[in-house]
Write a structure and sequence with these properties.
The structure holds two protein chains of two kinds. Chain A has a single domain, classed as Orthogonal Bundle (Arp2/3 complex 21 kDa subunit ARPC3), CATH 1.10.1760. Chain A has six helices and no strands. In chain A, helix 1 runs parallel beside helix 3, helix 2 packs parallel to helix 4 and helix 2 packs across helix 6. In chain A, 68% of the residues lie in helices and 0% in strands. Chain A is mainly alpha-helical. Chain B has 16 helices and twelve strands. Chain B has two domains: 162 residues, Rod shape-determining protein MreC, domain 1 (Thrombin, subunit H), CATH 2.40.10.340; 191 residues, no CATH class. The interface between A and B is large, with 47 and 47 residues.
């Protein structure tokens, strides 16, 4: 059987690395901007989630992906005043899924980035809601319109943001 | 086994990480159920570290941003500043006049509140703070301010702006604090619809809107109605602006009830500076010490018969010699029974039975010329008693009483005994007294306390006193 060049072949997929300053600075900056910039549009955008997806997809390694998500989520939880773990769990799962998908799909294409981010925002929101309702006992209602708009906005933002962050990649 | 871990390394790590976070989450939820301290121990430390690490950076960014924006605004504002200055000076002059008038009204309101034994908490101390961050999520409406434990902030303190309420302090850190906005779905505040006086609980929704629920649908609620705090939540003092009713519709989930949507008075999405109410005081504290006197005073001030009693003063033998402005009431004390000094004594005793025994008796024994001082003396006592714990406005209110107290005692006594003790009207006797107002000083000199009372009295004219009754008050009365 000719294995040939397959996107699912690990040897053919680039695994990117990032410098330490970028690995630490970008997530911190994302959380910082999220809490600092008091712009209405940022209510719909989730910069920490976008950064989580980007690092997970680019590294293509589940463990660093999920740990990045867990740390970013915990940091965000610490700031928002919510019980620590709400965003942490959601972003851990997203990080894991992102890195797993990154192994199997071409995620450098803007279209696939948009669709992937769109889906991850929905998944993130869903996980968040489940944890909030089932574990924390929250009463937040699911709002389809708001969620879809948020997913759309984040998907579009991801196309731009990922293109910028691509410059930080250190190719092996 | 080793092969198993190597093969399923990723899912196992995922489960481990999730397990740790779920345990942490469960611990926090359980703690918050057991005690109100939602975050403590390890999670509290994470929060404190995060917030403390971010706060200086945020402050730096905010200060830099404000520096540039202020520099630009300062430049822009300089244009036309002279004209604006002129306008502002006019405005200040107008407002000063307005302030004098309002001060009178406020004093009057305080006395009436005391009369009604009405306890109201008012804001006595606030700390200004700058908003330096938000929660950054749509799920929670939380802002971060640059004042914390070191500035005396504590959880559950009310946060307001001049426009209206903002929220309450949720978490306090050394250098900053988190404020839970009123439109957060976990937030709540007791409110009253200002005109219909309907009470309700203001809650936030998950969409960041404000609404009052649990109001019966047969209540009439109109759009545009002003909503204020009720003070029942023990966080927001009563009477602070909350917002206006935007609409009221039937609650689909809760049939006989309405859902009243509120448009917040404070722009919760564009908060820059806020005030944290760190201390409230009871308006009644100063009033309570003198409330028995004040009730009579206020009633007597309101009685239309007071000036008429004043008019009788000259009729008393010797009273014409010193018809002091503060004296008329004292004169009226006597004028009910002018010819009988004993009756005056009895009157004084009956007054003393109310509260000021010695001074009242002295007043009765003295000649009418001394009555001014004599009657003032009890009032002076009252003032002294009332002003022990009072702040400047209250002192003004208390010390103002001598004039009214003079009139009040007989009137109150009269009111107690018979509702209409009004003698035959001789109002024309009053105007001639006006020029004699300066004679008050020598008259008042016998009673050393009278001087101070009289001096303080001039600062705050009696709102209830008619011009004829108190010439001095008439002079001081600000233009309305």
């Amino acid at each position: 059987m000719n294995a040939g060049v397959s996107l699912t072949s690990r040897e053919e997929i680039e695994v990117h690395r990032f410098s330490w300053p970028a690995s630490i600075g970008i997530p911190l900056l994302a959380v910082f901007l999220q809490v600092f910039l008091r712009i209405g549009l940022l209510n719909f955008l989730d910069l920490p989630l976008l950064v989580t997806i980007f690092f997970a997809v680019a590294r293509r390694r589940p463990v660093p992906g999920m740990i990045t998500g867990a740390l970013i989520g915990t940091l965000q939880d610490a700031w928002t005043g919510h019980p620590i773990g709400l965003f942490g769990i959601a972003k851990t799962i997203v990080g894991y899924l992102g890195s797993s998908i990154g192994v199997k799909l071409d995620v450098d294409n803007p279209g696939s980035r948009f669709l992937m981010t769109f889906a991850f925002v929905l998944i993130h929101k869903f996980i968040y809601m489940v944890i909030d309702l089932q574990l924390v006992g929250g009463s937040e209602a699911w709002n389809w319109g708001h969620t879809l708009f948020s997913a759309l906005a984040n998907g579009l933002a991801a196309v731009v943001l990922f293109a910028v962050l691509d410059r930080l990649k250190q190719r092996n | 086994m080793e092969n198993f871990f190597a093969r399923y390394k990723n899912p196992l790590v995922l489960m481990a990480v999730l397990f740790i976070q779920v345990v942490a989450l469960a611990t926090q939820v359980k703690r918050s159920e057991n005690s109100k301290a939602a975050s403590s121990g390890g999670t509290r430390l994470i929060r404190v570290w995060t917030v403390t690490a971010f706060t200086p950076i945020e402050k730096m960014f905010v200060s830099t941003g404000h520096f540039f924006s202020n520099s630009w605004h300062n430049y822009a504002d300089l244009r036309g500043v002279r004209q604006q200055n002129r306008q502002l000076q006019d405005e200040v002059a107008r407002l000063q006049m307005e302030q004098v008038r309002l001060k009178q009204d406020a004093d009057q309101a305080r006395r009436l509140q005391a009369l009604m034994d009405f306890k109201e908490k008012f804001v006595s101390k606030t700390v200004a703070a700058q908003v330096i961050g938000t929660s950054g999520t749509e799920q929670s409406k939380v802002i971060t301010i640059d004042k914390g434990k070191r500035d005396g902030l504590k959880p559950d303190m009310a946060v307001i702006t001049p426009n209206g309420i903002v929220g309450k302090i949720k978490e306090v850190y050394p250098l900053s604090s988190q404020v839970l906005l009123v439109n957060d779905h976990e937030s709540g505040a007791g409110v009253i619809l200002e005109s219909s006086r309907l009470q309700g609980i203001l809650k936030g929704t998950s969409l960041g809107e404000l609404q009052i629920s649990d109001v019966m649908s047969d209540e009439k609620v109109e759009a545009g109605e002003h909503v204020i705090t009720s003070g029942g939540d023990r966080i927001f003092p009563k009477g602070l602006s909350v917002g206006t009713v935007s609409n009221a519709v039937a609650d689909r989930d809760n049939d006989p009830f309405l859902v009243i949507k509120i448009k917040p008075a404070a722009d919760l999405n564009r908060l820059e500076e806020v005030l944290v109410i760190t201390e409230t005081a009871e308006a009644q504290r100063a009033a309570s010490s003198a409330s028995p006197v004040r009730a009579a005073d206020i009633l007597s001030q309101r009685l239309p018969s007071i000036p008429k009693q004043d008019a009788n003063a000259p009729k008393i033998p010797g009273a014409t010699a010193t018809p002091t402005p503060a004296g008329p009431a004292a004169g009226s004390d006597k004028t009910k029974k002018p010819a009988v000094p004993d009756a005056g004594q009895k009157k004084a005793v009956s007054d003393a039975g109310q509260k000021k025994e010695g001074a009242g008796t002295t007043a009765a024994v003295k000649t009418p010329s001394a009555e001014a001082g004599g009657v003032k003396a009890p009032a002076g006592k009252t003032a002294a008693g009332g002003s022990v714990n009072s702040a400047s406005p209250k002192t003004g209110a208390d010390t103002k009483k001598p004039a009214s107290a003079g009139t009040a005692q007989p009137a109150a006594a009269g009111a107690d005994e018979s509702p209409t003790p009004t003698p035959t009207p001789k109002p024309k006797a009053t105007p001639p007294k006006k020029p004699k107002a300066p004679a008050k000083t020598p008259d008042a000199s016998p009673g050393s306390t009278d001087n101070t009372n009289a001096g303080q009295q001039e600062t705050v004219p009696a709102p209830g006193a008619t011009p004829a009754a108190t010439p001095s008050a008439n002079q001081e009365k600000p233009p309305r």
